[in-house]
Design goal:
heterodimer; A: alpha+beta; 3 helices; B: mainly alpha; 14 helices; 0% strand
């Protein structure tokens, strides 16, 4: 086996770390990626962990709005959507939710997904909901 | 798999160099055995490689072996995106660093450099988040919330914070409310016990200090005796204390394996210290000391 130059062997892994961590910083800033995820070493630095985020999904039409129950089998998809709530990811999650929805008695026009985080007031630690992402998907009929 | 040792083992220096690397590599594989990673497809392969690597020295020091682990652990991160923990990425970088170092003329030295820089970057980014980017770390609210809501800290928080079950549950319920609608809400305020606040402040100050010290010491260029000793001391203390409370043993074991690989051949006591703390972290995981030893005493 050929020997590698020392510099290449020493610096490639750290450069990869820098690239991934830099990407994580960007995604945390631009797409509300949880600081706990993405390889940026932000775990245990903020209360904005995936465990402190949650998702609401609402079916809507002209007359009404109903919140969807997120089934157990979509738990992981729910976590991924909450952790990195881009429109593309929420669209995929919306498709999965609609596939799992069995009540077809009402004709719905749209599905709205909200991803919420939480902040805590400094003195009282009173939790305050923070809307991190909100996407509305029109439903085809 | 036939291999030629890239480190000459016939000389005394060669034997020392290979021993230094071997401990770090074996601890890495032990980490993989004790904290298996990957989904249903990757896990058996990674586990199998870890077992073989521990049993056969030829495989342990072969670059392709570590390239395979680097690839598999990287695939794990990709499949789990964006959910993988930080140390999943670090594991992949480390396996790659080992593979690349084993393909050079001086594996021990090159692995020591890349390992040191990787550890430095881990703590530099950790400091960036803690000191600058987080809105609630420096003010200690992060630890107040974490102690009261993260189940991994419940035993420690109840013992150190002097909380009975009812009080703890009340505080946790308060913090886990979903207040998604605009105000006004029912403003039910709950007083956070003074001991929890003090504990959070102490934890915040300690972690700011130790993370910064690790970042600076590992990033500081040079390999003088004092600086090297300081690096090892800080890393060992960090792992011994942190993973007694935060049961993220996989990360602790990985850091210890990396630290062990930085030991010069003559640093026998330091390598022993790494092995000792490695075992300590195993005990922390297996013996819920806060729940089983102290909670029955304090109620």
């Amino acid at each position: 086996m050929k020997t590698l130059p020392d510099g290449f062997a020493r610096w490639l892994p750290p450069i990869l770390l820098l690239l991934v961590a830099g990407n994580q910083l960007w995604l945390a800033h631009s797409d509300a990626l949880s600081p706990w995820s993405g390889g940026g070493f932000g775990m245990f630095s903020t209360t904005d962990s995936p465990a402190h985020r949650h998702v609401h999904a609402f079916l809507e039409n002209e007359g009404s709005r109903r919140e969807l129950f997120i089934p157990r089998e979509l738990y992981e998809a729910n976590r991924r959507a909450a952790t990195l709530p881009t429109r593309e990811r929420l669209a995929g999650f919306a498709d999965q939710l609609l596939s799992s929805e069995t009540d077809d008695r009402v004709r719905w026009d749209a599905l709205e997904i909200q991803v919420w985080g939480v902040e805590y007031e400094a003195d009282s630690l009173l939790p305050v909901g923070v809307l991190l992402a909100q996407e509305r998907f029109e439903l085809a009929h | 798999m036939r291999t030629e040792p890239l480190i000459p083992t016939g000389t005394r220096a060669g034997i020392g160099a290979s021993l230094a690397i071997d401990l770090g590599l074996r601890l890495t594989l032990l980490d993989l055995l004790l904290r298996p990673v990957g989904n249903w497809a990757l896990r058996p392969v990674i586990l199998g490689l870890a077992v073989i690597g521990l049993l056969r020295s030829g495989w342990l020091r072969h670059p392709l072996f570590w390239l395979a682990l680097a690839g598999l652990t990287a695939i794990r991160c990709v499949l789990a995106w964006p959910l993988a923990d930080n140390h999943a990425y670090l594991l992949s970088y480390w396996c790659l660093a080992v593979a690349l170092a084993l393909m050079t003329r001086d594996a021990s030295r090159n692995l020591a450099v890349s390992g040191r820089v990787l550890i430095a970057l881990v703590f530099v980014f950790a400091c960036l988040w803690k000191f600058a980017l987080s809105e609630n770390y420096v003010g200690s609210s992060f630890f107040q919330v974490t102690f009261l809501t993260d189940p991994r800290f419940e035993g420690f928080a109840r013992v150190a914070g002097g909380l009975d079950v009812a009080t703890y549950d009340e505080l946790r319920s308060h913090l886990e409310q979903h207040r998604d609608t605009p105000p006004p809400w029912d403003e039910e305020s709950v007083e956070i016990p003074a001991r929890i606040v003090s504990l959070a402040v102490a934890a915040t100050l300690w972690n700011l200090f130790i993370n910064a010290a690790l970042a600076v010491s590992f990033a500081w260029p040079g390999s003088g005796r004092r600086l090297t000793s300081l690096r090892h001391l800080l890393l060992l203390v960090y792992c011994a204390i942190t993973y007694a409370v935060a049961t993220v043993d996989g990360f602790g074991w990985l850091l210890l394996a990396m630290g062990a690989s930085l030991c010069a051949p003559q640093m026998r006591r330091t390598r022993l210290a790494y092995m000792t703390v490695f075992v300590m972290v195993l005990f922390y995981r297996e013996i819920p000391w806060a729940d089983e030893l102290f909670l029955p005493l304090f109620g």
